[in-house]
Write a structure and sequence with these properties.
GFO_IDH_MocA-like_dom; Dihydrodipicolinate Reductase, domain 2; single chain; alpha/beta; 360 residues; 10-stranded mixed beta sheet; Rossmann fold; Gfo/Idh/MocA-like_OxRdtase_N; 6-stranded parallel beta sheet
Length: 360
């Protein structure tokens, strides 16, 4: 296969997020929307038309038909979390590379089944955490790794909240125990946990303790929660995620010499412009009226949205595998670590806010 041949994507289901990612597949130069499968052929046809799928895209009335199509290279799986283990394992067994929505599974044991199937078939898996692929993320990593400006990491705080409307809180799959049982923890909390792990260079904490006062709906799905994470060397992190508060997406990372702050870390305030600030060895002026020096403000511009960069990188890896390379193990490793912490938060909530020791 030549490097110029686009990776042919099949999409399983017509979830709302599939609108955004299918557009990204269309825009990415090394990928194309090749097939769409839904349990209803009418729904799939309407979705393809509404989202400007290529005229020659194949429309199927089942997920199996997409996986059985020999020309599909990779599948994007935006199905409810409860269906991930079944369809991702099947996709891997059919030698399809997998771009999987988060959370990747209901628990790490399920994800291990998915990862094992991918490894057995030699296929790439990557989760849909888009902000990892934004050029701002690489830029911020430079500050965090600079011991002269940032020093040693001491604490991390992340927040991702958004105010849901009554229809969401009643009907969205993220509030249904049989579909996305982890609710806000699985959705917004996934990003908070990944943000913490990213700052800590993916070093897992020793202990996780859920914060008291989570809010659950009448069927037991989490609408708002938080946790603290503790490392053996004394580092501490906290996060808060919610479907019930004003839109906020923040990371604050504090080192012995510097502080990184990013607002809009999951989705930048503007599609082509992302900001963050960094303070290093900052103090007060003589009369304690201002910071000296003030934090430096940084703007990272990109003409390519982060979801397109994600699809492009995933497709590059798939193309490399077609040319003889091995799958990139970084991505399933990051998915697994994020899922481990998520599982521990849920366990702590279920056990009355007991500390949960992390085992990798």
């Amino acid at each position: 296969m030549s490097a110029e041949t686009p990776i042919r994507f099949g999409i399983l289901g017509c979830a709302e997020i599939a609108r955004k990612v299918s557009r990204a597949i269309t825009v990415a130069q090394n990928a194309t929307v090749y097939a769409l499968g839904s349990r209803s052929i009418d729904k799939a046809t309407a979705f393809a038309k509404a989202n400007n799928f290529p005229a020659n895209a194949k429309i199927y009335g089942s997920y199996d038909a997409v996986l059985d199509d020999p020309d599909v290279d990779a599948v994007y799986v935006p199905l409810p979390t409860s269906l991930h283990v079944k369809w991702a394992v099947l996709a891997a067994q059919k030698k399809k590379h997998i771009l999987l929505e988060k959370p990747v599974a209901l628990n790490v044991a399920e994800f291990d089944k998915i990862a094992e199937a991918c490894e057995s078939s030699g296929v790439q898996i990557m989760d849909g955490t888009m902000w990892m692929h934004h050029p701002r993320t690489a830029k911020m990593s430079e500050f965090l790794s600079d011991s002269n400006r940032f020093g040693q990491l001491r604490t991390i705080h992340t927040v991702f909240t958004f105010a849901s409307d009554p229809d969401f809180l009643k009907n969205d799959i993220r509030v249904k125990p049989d579909l996305d049982a982890h609710g806000a923890l699985g959705d917004a909390g996934w990003y908070c946990i990944r943000g913490i792990l990213w700052v800590s260079n993916y070093e897992l904490p020793k202990t996780v303790i859920a914060l008291r006062g989570p809010i659950l709906n009448e069927v037991g799905v989490i609408l708002s929660c938080g946790a603290s994470l503790h490392w053996e060397d004394g580092k501490v992190a906290t996060f808060h995620c919610s479907f019930l508060s004003s839109l906020t997406m923040e990371i604050t990372a504090v080192g012995t010499k510097g502080t990184l702050h990013v607002d809009g870390f999951v989705i930048p305030h503007q599609e082509k412009e992302a900001r963050f600030s960094f303070a290093s060895e900052t103090g007060f002026d003589e009369f304690v009226t201002c910071w000296v020096p003030p934090p430096s403000q940084h703007i990272v511009t990109t003409d390519i949205p982060q979801e397109v960069l994600m699809v492009r990188e995933f497709s590059r890896l798939v193309g490399a595998i077609k040319n003889g390379s091995k799958p990139e193990k970084k991505w399933p490793t990051l998915s697994r670590k994020t899922q481990i912490v998520l599982d521990a938060v849920k366990a702590s909530i279920d056990k009355g806010f007991e500390p949960i020791d992390i085992k990798y």
